[in-house]
Design goal:
Chain lengths: ~425, ~425
């Protein structure tokens, strides 16, 4: 039986390592993401009902409904959200991922990233920047106006640019950023920089006026997280083919909706194992404290699931100035992840560990055996709708997700007669 | 007397630490660099006569004469160079620095970097890119054509861009790149990326056609060393005010002309202490070996003199893939430099050393006492004119430079009656 599981896990992590995430273009959620309607709202994490949603997710839903013209204000949007007319679903059920609240609505432009090895695609909205933004639960006029500009200008300009650039090999680009102090989750300064320089010679050729082109450059330049919304779908499309390998105990999804943390395991691909999301241990912006924090939220933990993000912090020592700790802590976090993973990444490497491949492919068995939980670095949202980011730090998934998953896995083996 | 020296060195290194290198514009060598004529050729390193010049420096001189229209080909340029009609001088005698051969001629566009604290300026040509380039001693038609394009297009476009951008604080930018895997000498990928994204929103607004603007972006994007020619004058203008502090034993210039390595010491600011340049221990491109190598060449060691470059290799672990060794070696090189320096940099910091400031301000006394020589990472030029780069690696200055400098320093103290 151990041999059976070992082979299954080799297959699952092998698929992950063979992934070739490639940026192929820009579309819109409505036109490109499967099964979207004008009244569908996708969100981060496992499925969650309106009445169970946390403050920042509610705020983002409200902003999304106003942005789509389905409601005028907080009250009418809240009433609509509660009415049963809106279809809420997990991004992950639609080949998509979203940072923080992760709200995706019909009209939003989305990056289209294809795993060239397996042909599957993943989608993610474009990053809105810092300050008051939908993903942190803000829904004010400036948020909605920015989303409109992204729909009408930013998305189309970048779509036309990408048509000139051609496809961009994101695996190679992410490999480079891990040599440049990024870990691909909370530090994306190198990634954003590499993307801008890659696009620049072509972006100037699009059929828009100079002021618009300049504004697009300035928008990307103003936001070091712009590249996050590319690492996320790159990771998502890398992981999806690893779901559904019979007997594999590898985690192929981790995600949080702000209320619950959920994981999915390869051999039980459609089942979420959830538990209440944790509060983040981190550095708070001036004026805020842990009392203001919403529990852990967002699909961005897809980066850790792929072996970058928190798992790759040893490659990004400067991140400790944002999430806390010392560079040695960052290296130690990266090292400890080898205890709970199936492989070392063949492409994403950690210079400080003599270019050792980052720990990749979390095994629920190893998590339970060692008691070591995946390390995640993340932004912290205010618990109330409309406020925004209040800090950043480190967090783990609840152990219960792994315990329940292993229990269900053993039940499955029993049911199939593999063990008695 | 020790107190006298200590105070002098505090003053010298204090001036270096207080520097505020700032990119203020682009000019031309002829119009902006002091004391240039159509027949002046500046070169890297201490002064050297035509007959003593190494192959790559001769190649670059020949290319420079052809570029300026003073000669038609190798033979006529060689004859002119040997005729006595050309004024050869060290870049350092003209507030300038140049990578590798470092040849600067009248018509070349130059970055203008000002030390805002002291008001002095430094100049450097724009980086030509990889392959056959003047700085490695190539002088073929493609080299000269590229220089013409840089004069007629690249320089003017960037000059107009900078007029829109305003000044760029290079100290902050260099501080950022040392958090992004660059050390500012042989790894400039982050720096080049940050520069491009800083310029982009403004570059699109210059009064040139789209194809030209696109080509300028593509040129910068194609060359990860583009930023080197900004770190160099940033370092040069940071160091120059530290020259001329009475009794200071701090090195404020290190430079090589391909034949000799030379240093200058703060308290004897106009005197070069030279010795034959060393052969570089490094990784060679396929088809080349140490037998092809020219001795150490270039003004780029101004980065190490300022405390970045080789001194900051611990911040740039990925560089070992280019110059040899392991990331731990890189950290060890950075650590050992604290033994021979006067201060830790207040701005350029090494994440792997828990953000310790890079070792800054080489003291000739400490070099002699410890026997530890400054560590330099550098490109390797072919010894013959016209070939180009053949590898990259690590090198030290000859100990003799420091021995002679200390001897001269002691003589000076004796002459002044400070010691008997």
């Amino acid at each position: 039986m151990q041999e059976l599981i070992k082979k299954a896990n080799e297959e699952a992590v092998g698929r992950l390592l063979k992934a070739q995430p490639t940026l192929v273009g820009i579309g819109t959620a409505g036109a490109d993401i499967p099964n979207m309607t004008k009244k569908t709202i996708l969100h981060a994490g496992p499925p969650v009902k309106w009445e169970d949603m946390s403050g920042p997710l509610r705020g983002a839903v409200i902003g999304g409904l106003i942005y789509e013209g389905l409601a005028d204000d907080f009250d009418s949007a809240s009433a609509l959200a509660a009415s049963g007319e809106i279809t809420f679903d997990s991004c992950h059920h639609h080949d998509a991922v979203g940072p923080m609240a992760g709200v995706v609505t019909y009209s939003m432009p989305v990056w289209i990233v294809e795993n060239k090895t397996f042909g599957n695609k993943a989608y993610c909205t474009l990053n809105e920047g810092l300050g008051k933004v939908l993903r942190f639960g803000a829904y004010q006029e400036e948020v909605v106006e920015r989303l409109k500009w992204m729909e009408e200008v930013l998305g189309p300009v970048l779509k036309e640019t990408l048509a000139l650039v051609g496809e961009i090999d994101l695996k190679t680009m992410i490999a480079q950023v891990t040599q440049m102090g990024d870990e691909g989750h909370n530090r994306n300064k190198a990634g954003t920089s590499l993307l801008i320089r890659e696009l620049a010679p072509h972006l100037v050729r699009v059929n828009y006026d100079i002021e618009t082109i300049s504004k697009v450059f300035a928008f990307m330049h103003s936001n070091d997280h712009f590249f996050l919304n590319l690492t996320m779908p790159a990771c998502k499309c890398s992981l999806d083919p690893a779901g559904g390998v019979k007997y594999s105990t590898m985690v192929y999804t981790m995600a949080r909706n702000g209320t619950e943390f959920g994981i999915r395991v390869s051999s039980m691909p459609d089942r979420w194992f959830t538990a209440p999301a944790e509060i983040i241990d981190g550095l708070y912006f001036p004026g805020y404290s842990p009392a203001d924090a919403n529990p852990d939220i967002g699909d961005s933990v897809i980066t850790e699931t792929t072996g970058i993000g928190g798992f790759c912090m040893g490659a990004a020592p400067a991140i400790v100035q944002f999430v806390g700790g010392t560079p040695q802590d960052a290296v130690n976090y990266s090292k400890s992840m080898y205890e709970i993973t199936l492989a070392e990444n063949n492409t994403y490497k950690i210079p400080a560990l003599n270019f050792r491949g980052s720990a990749t492919g979390v095994d629920i068995q190893k998590v339970i055996e060692t008691g070591i939980l995946p390390i995640i670095n993340t932004g912290i949202a205010h618990k109330d709708p409309g406020v925004g980011q209040v800090g950043a730090g480190l967090v783990n998934p609840p152990m219960k997700c792994f315990e329940d998953a292993l229990e269900a896995y053993v039940e499955m083996l029993e049911k199939e007669g593999v063990i008695k």
